[in-house]
Amino acid sequence: MAIKVIAQLREVKLGKNPGKKFVMRPDLYVPIAEKKVFQEAATHSGISAGVIKAAWDAAGEVIRTWATEGHSIPLPGLGTMRFGVRSKAVEKLEDVKANLISVRRIIFTPNVDVKDELKNTSIQITCLDEDGNVLKRVTSGDSGDIEDTENNENGGSTENGSGSGSGSGSNTGGNASGDNNGGNTGGGGDGGDDLDKN
Hints:
By secondary structure, the chain is α+β, with helices and mostly antiparallel strands.
């Protein structure tokens, strides 16, 4: 098993060093149907798919309710999930208003087993030119480090995708609007601080 990533030559117009660069993004995966997940879980557990779906639906309702009450919720076998917000920082009390919040966030923290699985999974990179022609294929030689979202939530300013600082990392989930030492090709945030509900 391997994670597939595409590095395609594109014109990057924003950031400190605009120009043609190979921008990484995940290869398009075919979404797995919900029904198939329950069928596979039934095969592994010996419990009927209908019973698993009913239990999953009930757990999902409990998770949504508790998370919106401000709790950090365990997701058995996966990690924890909680809600938070990204906002601007202000110096004066009278400037603290509801419009400081720029985006609501879902924060997922994987458990050790999930992190180890990701760390030990190879990443295959397919390099494409601007027209989509394959130039070469390589396997990443990265160290397998996993971003610590709990400790890096306040790290890095990613104003309009031109991130700088720790925590900006390599975000391969979006557009190529950033250019920093961390390789931010995912757009970035609003450069504000995080105020997460605990």
